[in-house]
Amino acid sequence: KQWYQRRVREDNKVVHVKSGELTSSAQPFEVLPGFNLECYPNRDSTIYKEAYGIESAHTVLRGTLRYRGYSSAMDSLIQLGLFSSKQRDLSGYTWNTLTKEMLGNKNLTNSELRRKLTSLFKGDKYKVATIKKLGLLDESPLPANIDNTMDALVDKLASSLMMPEGETDVIIMNHSVGVRLPSGKCETHRSNLVVYGEENGWSAMAKTVGLPVGIAAEMIMNGEIKERGLVLPFSKDIYEPMIKKLALEGIEERREVECDEFDF
C-alpha cells in the first residue's frame, strides 16, 4: 500500500494526495506550451530527496504528463462509477445499458440519459462528450467473460484507443531544478526530452524503454558495468556512458537555464 501512496513535498511540507482527488489535482504544465500538457503527482515523490542527494530541496514533485483534458476525461469515468473491481453479473449487458444502470436506471430513454449525464457532470459538456466518444453509449455487448466494470472498461479502452496504422506517439520528459546560488541569484535549470515514434516503425515508447535496456545489457557484457544484483543507474559510471550511447540513437535531452531574477 505504501508504494501506491501519492505524496509530494511542497515548501518543506509533505502533502498527501488521495486517490479520489488525483484527477482534480492536475495542474497546467507550462514549460513546453506547444504540447498543451497537464501534470499530476505520480506515486511517492518524497523518496527522491535522498535518492538524488537533494536533501536541501524544499519542493520535490515527480509527476505524470498528459495532454490537457486527460484528467477531466478520467474523472468522468470515476464519477460514473466504472473504476470498480466489485464482482457482478454483466451477462447480456451492452455499454448503453450499463451506463444507464450506473446512472440509476437501465431503462432510461436517450433524452433522460443525456439529462442524467449533464446533471452528474454539473453541465460539463467535455465530460459528457468523453462518455460518448469512448463508446460508452454504444449498443455493443460487454465481453462474456468479464465480471466487473473495471475490467470491462479496460477491455473497451484497449480497443477504442488503440493506435491506428500509421499513427505515431511521443514521449516527453522534463526535469526542472530551481537553485539559489551563493550570490543570492536564483536560476531554474531544465532538461527536456522529446522523442517521436516512427511512422510504420518503432514507437517512441519502444525506443525509450527498449534502447536503455539493450545498452545496459551490452555494457554488462563488455564489463562497463561491474556491479551485480539490482543496480539503480544513479552513479556516473553507469548513466554518463549510457546517455552518450542514447544520443547516438537520436535520444538526446535539451538543456536550458532560466534566470528567475533580472540583472540590472
What does the main sheet amount to? 3 strands, antiparallel
Oligomer: single chain
Q: Give the low-confidence spans.
A: none
What is the helix tally? 8
Please report the distance between the alpha carbons of the first and last residues. 52 Å
Q: In which range does the helix fraction lie?
A: 25-40%
- Approximate shape: globular
Give the neighbour order of strands across the main sheet.
Answer: 3-4-5
- Rg from Cα: 23 Å
**Helix-and-strand structural type:** alpha+beta
- The helix-strand sequence is EEEEHEHHHHHEEHHE
Average pLDDT metric: 91
Total beta strands:
8
| Strand content range | 15-25%
Structure, explained:
With 264 residues, the chain is of the alpha+beta class. 33% of the residues lie in helices and 19% in strands. Strands 3-4-5 form a 3-stranded antiparallel sheet, with no helix packed on it. It has helices at residues 48-51, 70-80, 95-102, 110-120, 125-133, 149-160, 204-221, 236-248, and strands spanning 7-10, 13-16, 27-29, 37-41, 63-67, 170-180, 186-196, 254-259. The radius of gyration is 23 Å and the shape is globular. The mean pLDDT is 91.
